[in-house]
Design brief:
single chain, 138 residues, alpha/beta, 5 helices, 41% helix, globular
Amino acid sequence: MLIPLAVFIVDDDKDDTDMFCEVISEINNSVKCTAASNGKEALQLLENERVLPDFLFLDLNMPGMNGKQLLKQLKQNQKLTSIPVIIYSTSNLEADKEITRQLGASYFLTKPDSMKQLKKDLEFVFDKKYEHNQVVTT
């Protein structure tokens, strides 16, 4: 499994962010987990980073700039367009999956119910097994 050096999560739910970063630490405690609580904060942090994250996990439903709006801006930004964006949302709507795929998301991950399942899902993403699947969700 490819272990990223840094991941970035954009989610307005602090509990989800804390659980996500805790699972990242379980996978490998040397991975840097950076978080932003909204799209505008994420863009500011990313613009100031010298080393970009290996993966960006993005919630769709956030106040202000939502995930789809942020995804569109990320993919239009020359510096940030190459970061693989994984949608990380409670949504499992086919319309959300299709729209985010068209906007440039690499994968769509519906938030799991348990830390154990989240760990499996993240390992799947870090292995980039989604690149070999036709399916856009687990």
